[in-house]
Specification:
With about 280 residues, the chain is α/β, with parallel strands linked by helices. The protein is built from ten helices and twelve strands. The structure holds pyridoxal-5'-phosphate.
Length: about 280
């Protein structure tokens, strides 16, 4: 293995770099300005150096509300067939379409507690043949998260794991996947899109949408605190009404706030949180 090029558009991309260096993976970080995406040009420029054999892309950056242009990035990747593409889809998988195989994503990671709307406790990961083969060249793969040994064990032992998995979440996931199929995947994506559009236009009316318009997340909207409101106080009032928003994440705390529109949430929930904000703050 050579080096990983990590593209960061916010707190979770930065975290990925921390994970890589913490695991002794040689890597470089390529940051975009907060609210801006990773561009296909940035990926091309990095890969054209020939220094990298892996890239890490955040599909949906939960701290800034960016969804990266992965279709365009996939086009660039066609020029670099030996590069393993890892994607963080923690806050978008099951709420936003990601055609993993068509895009050529080799490792896609998500979690149960975001758009799958389950409790936290399990990571879900896809692994391409190319990525599997590459794992053989990675020294110090650790123990609990050694994907190669997890994959081999699953193959050999009739879906047994290397370590004790979170069985309760697996049962919950089984049920939730059935519910998702009942809703219909297309309907599910359309519901997320409709909520996103509603929240964005509400945000434009009373505040402003933080991130680049052309690359907005389908699963949450990050809103600039243009009125300098007390976000913690607003949240306390919302909690009394049985709802909650997210304060800005990390450096964006109090400068932005976040409305989630993912998982089990509905248009009624969006109407209810936005009208409550208007009511509590007496916005005009
Ligand atoms: C995009 C993204 N990546 C990764 C994570 C994982 O974060 P944690 O360290 O809380 O498990 C999150 C959680 O919010 C996320 O939104």
């Amino acid at each position: 293995a050579k080096r990983a090029a990590i593209f960061s558009v916010g707190a979770f991309g930065d975290k990925w770099y921390k994970i890589a260096t913490g695991n002794g993976v040689p890597s470089d970080i390529f940051k975009s300005e907060l609210g801006q995406p990773t561009t296909p040009e940035m990926v091309d420029a990095a890969l054209s150096t020939g220094k990298y054999d892996a890239i890490c892309i955040t599909h949906n950056e939960t701290s800034t509300g960016i969804q990266n242009p992965v279709e365009e990035i996939a086009e660039v990747l066609k020029k670099y067939p030996d590069v393993v593409w890892c994607m963080d889809a923690v806050s978008s998988a099951a709420g936003s379409r990601i055609e993993t195989d068509k895009l050529g994503v080799d490792v896609l990671v998500t979690s149960t507690q975001k758009a799958l709307a389950l409790p936290p406790g399990m990571a879900v990961c896809t692994l391409s043949q190319k990525a599997y083969e590459r794992t053989a060249f990675v020294p110090n793969r650790g123990c609990y998260f050694d994907l190669r040994s997890i994959y081999d064990t699953i193959q050999k032992k009739d879906y047994q794991y290397t370590n004790t998995p979170c069985i309760s979440i697996m049962y919950a996931m089984d049920l939730q996947l059935q519910r998702i199929m009942q809703e219909g995947v297309e309907n599910r994506f359309a519901r997320h899109e409709a909520m996103a559009e509603f929240v964005r236009s509400w945000a434009d009316e009373y505040f402003s949408v933080f991130a680049n318009r052309d690359h907005l997340s389908r699963t949450l909207t990050v809103i600039s605190n243009t009125r300098d409101i007390d976000i913690a106080a607003l949240n306390n009032s919302l909690i009394e009404r049985g709802m909650q928003l997210g304060n800005g994440y990390g450096d964006l705390k109090n400068k932005t706030f976040r409305i989630a529109h993912m998982g089990e949430l509905t248009m009624d929930d969006m109407r209810s949180i936005t009208s409550s904000i208007v009511d509590i703050l007496k916005l005009k």
